[in-house]
Amino acid sequence: MEFRAAIVIVFLSCLSCAVCYDYKTVLQKSLLFYEAQRSGKLPADQKVKWRADSALNDKGRNGEDLTGGYYDAGDYVKFGFPMAFTATVLSWNILDHEKAYTKAGVLEDGRKAIKWATDYLIKCHVGDNQLYGQVGLGQLDHDSWTRPEDMTMERPAFMINASAPGTDLAGETAAAMAAASLVFKSVNATYSALLLKHARQLFDFANNYRGKYSDAITDANTFYPSSNYPDELAWGAAWMYRATGEKKYMSVVDEIYPTIQYWDGFSWDDKKGGLDLLLATLTGQSTYLDKLKSYCDYQFTKTTKTPKGLIYYSDSANLRSVNNLLLICLEAAERGINADSYRKEAKKQIDYMLGDSGFSYVVGIGNNYPTHAHHRSSSCPDHPAECGWSFFNSDLKNYHMVEGAIVGGPGANDSYIDTRKDAPHNEVACDFNAAFQSCIAILVELGY
Ligand SMILES: *[C@@H]1O[C@H](CO)[C@@H](O)[C@H](O)[C@H]1NC(C)=O
Ligand SMILES: *[C@@H]1O[C@H](CO)[C@@H](O)[C@H](O)[C@H]1NC(C)=O
Ligand SMILES: *[C@@H]1O[C@H](CO)[C@@H](O)[C@H](O)[C@H]1NC(C)=O
Predict the structure, then answer these.
(1) Does 13 sit in the ligand 3 pocket, CB within 6 Å?
(2) Signal peptide: which range, if any (predicted)?
(3) Is 374 among the residues known to form the active site?
């Protein structure tokens, strides 16, 4: 009997998985991923040593310095729209869950990850109504498989302006800067004020000249086409209100909100879920929470799941969509909506990603993780060895590890093949990690 009891206890403690995943380590490694994505001149304290300076010649049409920022994904284009979204999400997360970053010993690194984006976004904002939104050409960039340090293709820069506006891009960039200004308020008041100054100008630009950025920057249409802009205008306005307390920004929310009342999605293209969370806190009104509850209840109970229990939206980058959902519902839980059940389901989904299905979809986490991520810079052997398409097509493992990056993830039947050739399931991207890291930080803060 005693023997049997011992087995039961071992079995139970394994099920409750108190020590299965070290979320603090995952948080640390996610920040290493952002280091690996850095473009421009790298600082002396760079921890990811297999990267070096790159794209030092990135310039605007009039020679403006556009070095810095993040490479988008497995490629080297700097797409401003998802980059700004990444900066907003990371800022929001540190702002509201600073304790998690402190607990994991990465508060400084977390702030640096934001600043790497916002320093670049400041450079892109070259005039009150002029914002560069892309450096590099999608197809030309994707045609080559090389190290970022060695690339030679043309990297033109594209902007939005008064005659070719982009309310979504300017609104999201204003949101990023407003959120970051709050993060840096207690760290460096000068930098915080600079961010807020740019945020104010960019928000006015977004509001006064309305249009879709991907109509102005047409190369982005193939990669990050914006479906519409009112959500970013309202999201930007809500962040401006949070950063300044000025009522004029809430008037813009009031003007726009009735036109975007439908479904609460959240992604680089859809800000409604995040907006409702922000408004729930800023206004104290329950309508926003009611909407979020319907959304999360539906998604958690009605969405298709894989046989092993992963929420399944689509065959391409499914984990991105799942993490975006989990972030919204973990934040809803923070506001008292079905807290226990949402947190339990979110932990289950996250644990699937970290290894419960028998495979970890996060590079460098666990014992069995992607070694062939669709990611140019980590795949290529060190200079002067050849990289190129023959390396891409080979079965050789990626030469370096892009630690902390989450890949697109499995297909409908938990199926997954670890090959560079499968971008829909095996690519990594800055925006994937933004929501993923944010969920992890919330789990750390909860003490899970
Ligand atoms: C405004 O932006 C559009 C689209 O990027 C560009 O074609 C145009 O030349 C820009 N106008 C000015 C004055 O820079
Ligand atoms: C604070 O930010 C300003 C503006 O970016 C910068 O010039 C200054 O060096 C920063 N100060 C510190 C102590 O980092
Ligand atoms: C998943 O499995 C089901 C049942 O075995 C099968 O009908 C379906 O075609 C599979 N889907 C994929 C994408 O493999």
Answers:
(1) no
(2) 1-20
(3) yes
